[in-house]
User: Fold this.
Amino acid sequence: QTCALPISFGIVGTGKIGRVFAELLQGFGVRILAYDMYPNAEAARQLHIEYVSLEELYRNSDVISLHCPLTPENVHMINDEAIGMMKHGVYIINTSRGKLIDSAALIAGLKSRKIGGAGLDVYEEESDYFFEDRSGYAIDDRSEERRVGKECRSR
Assistant:
């Protein structure tokens, strides 16, 4: 299978971390779409970012990377409806806050292969581990699996 270039990266949140991510992408020849409540015209010019609506970002991105704070308005911004708008095989990266993604919707999207993969360093119920450096050993925490399992069985 061949890949049509350029691949489109969707960046949600173009604050400092989102802009650094866009800088890292510069050498790869990708198209960069972005959504931010406060678009940064200077960053758009310097980093070749195309600001679009969130829906357009969902529909046109091959990879979606979240770089935004958690607010009451964006809890579960990646949910069944959002995933339904996305390209088949989309990859989702979340290094921001776990509650930006509805875990049950993510798992359903992965199982159906609508989502090609997910790179997460946060998850919804991360509070027990959030403020400790546990990089020296694996966390044996199955609470997310149990919580999502309960939600999926009740659907």
User: Anything to note?
Assistant: The longest helix spans residues 143-154. The radius of gyration is 16 Å. Residues 75 and 100 are 5 Å apart (CA to CA).
